Each structure stands twice: as structure tokens, then as C-alpha cells.
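From the methods appendix. Each design record in this collection lists the discretized structure first, followed by the designed amino acid sequence. Records were kept in a plain field format so they could be parsed without special tools. The example shown here is representative of the layout used throughout.

RECORD:
C-ALPHA CELLS (328 positions):
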């Protein structure tokens, strides 16, 4: 009987050894915490399909942001839930719109100690729920929409956002926003492009959270087909050419191959968005006793980093940061 000379298990013998040779690490600074702020709210409202997540009021947003900063989180990503919606989504560029007010509050409260990322899209602001303005046939008018994204970006930058994150998947949106920002004197405001964003069922709970489900049709005419990976390379290269400072793949857990592929073609910071449905799945399974939530969340985040993401946008950010501080 011959025994193996190669024994990878030697390095798995103790927790201290495993920790020493671990290839992938996550820290709180890599995590980005999405937050919803609701206009007119006086107290936080829990989101039904995302237990533990809230539509914040301006005051509770500040408290949650303090919690995130205390936990060492890298950044917050803001979404607005406006009181008024119209066909163009004009609250998105109103200087008194809810996200602009939230950005100003956070900037005032934290100075430059908090990175503020503003999601840039129209679906939370349009009465029809699509990510842009509609043509007569119900499809989204790409070129009219990106002009509005640029206006919203300028309003967000003016309010104090460090980073604008266009999520609408319109062609040319990064270039339009870069041009708009530069023309308004915001050449230092960065762009995190949702480059490979798929038309995914995993956004279900988000549409509850931001009250933005399309009233008619779906988003397949602008978001990517889940069957495609080569197209994610094309989308990412276009965004980089147009001036993206960071790029993103979304969702995360169902797109680990996409994360790996995009990692191979760029050295820009790469984010992956672990979306609302992924959060809901992990939490529901843990609640049903399928596994321990902490172990499941940390394993998922590790897998996303291992696939090649530098940054992870996750609703578990604050909790995960606390777990990371105490786990080995
Ligand atoms: C669009 C937007 C969506 C999400 C982020 N930005 C919804 C969509 O595209 O339908 C989803 C995020 C999540 O599910 O956590 N503004």
C-alpha cells in the first residue's frame, strides 16, 4: 500500500493554519450597504419581503448610517422612495427630491468619513415603473432617458454624492452622465456603472422596497438576458470606454461566472450586487432552519470575493461587518 506524499490536508488541520493560508478575505471596508429613504416618513417601515430591511425616514437613515460607519462599512448606496411620481420621474432631479435631501443630510453629518453612492435611475420616480421615459409603443426611449439620467446625476453630485451609480442599462448612459457632470463642474464625482445587469427574477423584493414594479411589461428590453456572458464583456468594455471609474455585475450569486469573466478584462474596482432576492432566499432558508444565517452569509460573501469582486453590495453589510469583526 502506498501512501500519498502530497497532503493538502496538512494545511487544514487547525483553524489557525486554515486562517493563515486562506486565499480570500473579506473586510467591512469591502462592503456597501444599500439603504432606502422614503419621503414624508417619520419612522422606518419594515419591507415585507425583506425582513430586517427598512424604508428609512431621514432621521432613521442618519441613525442607520451611523451604525454602518461604526461597523466600518465601505459605503452606502442610496435609493429614494418619493411621495410623487410622474411619467418622466422628475423627482429624480429635483434639488429638494428625497435622495438629494438625504445626501445633503448624510454629508452634513459625516463630512468625508462616509462614501455616499447615489443609485441613478428613474424607475423609483416614474408612475409607470420603467427605468426611463416611454415612447408611444410602451418601449423606453433610450436617448431621451439618458439626458434625464445626466440631470439626476448633476442633482445628486450637487447634493454631495461621491459616486453616481447608473442602474438603468440604457446605451450610452455612462457617457451622458460623465458629460453632464463635467459640464456642471463635477469632474471629481466618480461613476460606478452597473455594467452587466441582468433581467433577473431576483429583484422581486426590491420592487416592494422601492415601490417600482413596472405597471406593464418587464425590463427585458433594456436589462441583459440571463443566458448571456459574452455580452457582459461587451457591456463592461463600453462602460469603461465611456468613462466608468468602477464597474458592477448584478445579481451576484447567480452570476459568479460573470464576475470571474469581467474580472479578467479589467483592473478597475469591480463590485458585485448581492440583490434583494438573494437576501430574501438566505434569510428565509435560515429562518426555516436549513442552515445558520451567519455561516451562510459569510460563505456567500466569500464566494463572491473568490469569483473576483473587490466590493460587495449587500443588505447584510452591517450585520456581516459585525460578524467579521468577531469570527476567525
Ligand atoms: C433599478 C434597480 C433595481 C435594483 C437596483 N436598481 C430594480 C430593477 O432593476 O428592477 C434591484 C436591487 C435589488 O434587487 O436588490 N433602479
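DESIGN:
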Amino acid at each position: 500500500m502506498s501512501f500519498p506524499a502530497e497532503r493538502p490536508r496538512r494545511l487544514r488541520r487547525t483553524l489557525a493554519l486554515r486562517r493563515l493560508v486562506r486565499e480570500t478575505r473579506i473586510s467591512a471596508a469591502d462592503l456597501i450597504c444599500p439603504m432606502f429613504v422614503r419621503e414624508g416618513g417619520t419612522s422606518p417601515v419594515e419591507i415585507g419581503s425583506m425582513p430586517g430591511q427598512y424604508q428609512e425616514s431621514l432621521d432613521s437613515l442618519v441613525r442607520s448610517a451611523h451604525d454602518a460607519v461604526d461597523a466600518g462599512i465601505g459605503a452606502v448606496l442610496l435609493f429614494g422612495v418619493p411621495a410623487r411620481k410622474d411619467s418622466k420621474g422628475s423627482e429624480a432631479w429635483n434639488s429638494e427630491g428625497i435622495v438629494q435631501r438625504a445626501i445633503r443630510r448624510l454629508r452634513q453629518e459625516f463630512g468625508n468619513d462616509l462614501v455616499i453612492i447615489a443609485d441613478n435611475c428613474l424607475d423609483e420616480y416614474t408612475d409607470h415603473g420603467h427605468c426611463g421615459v416611454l415612447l408611444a409603443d410602451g418601449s423606453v426611449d433610450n436617448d431621451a432617458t439618458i439626458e434625464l439620467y445626466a440631470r439626476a446625476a448633476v442633482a445628486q453630485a450637487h447634493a454631495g454624492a461621491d459616486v453616481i451609480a447608473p442602474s438603468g442599462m440604457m446605451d450610452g448612459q455612462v457617457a451622458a452622465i460623465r458629460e453632464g457632470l463635467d459640464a456642471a463642474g463635477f469632474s471629481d464625482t466618480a461613476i460606478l456603472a452597473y455594467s452587466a445587469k441582468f433581467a433577473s427574477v431576483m429583484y422581486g423584493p426590491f420592487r416592494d422596497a422601492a415601490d417600482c414594479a413596472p405597471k406593464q411589461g418587464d425590463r427585458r428590453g433594456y436589462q441583459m438576458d440571463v443566458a448571456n456572458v459574452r455580452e457582459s464583456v461587451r457591456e463592461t468594455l463600453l462602460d469603461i470606454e465611456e468613462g466608468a471609474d468602477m464597474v458592477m455585475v448584478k445579481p451576484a450569486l447567480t452570476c459568479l461566472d460573470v464576475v470571474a469573466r469581467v474580472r479578467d478584462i479589467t483592473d478597475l474596482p469591480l463590485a458585485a450586487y448581492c440583490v434583494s432576492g438573494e437576501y430574501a432566499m438566505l434569510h428565509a432558508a435560515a429562518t426555516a432552519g436549513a442552515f445558520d444565517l451567519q455561516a451562510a452569509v459569510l460563505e456567500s460573501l466569500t464566494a463572491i470575493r473568490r469569483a473576483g469582486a473587490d466590493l460587495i453590495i449587500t443588505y447584510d453589510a452591517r450585520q456581516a461587518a459585525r460578524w467579521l469583526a468577531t469570527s476567525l
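APPENDIX NOTE: Residues 39 and 310 are 32 Å apart (CA to CA).
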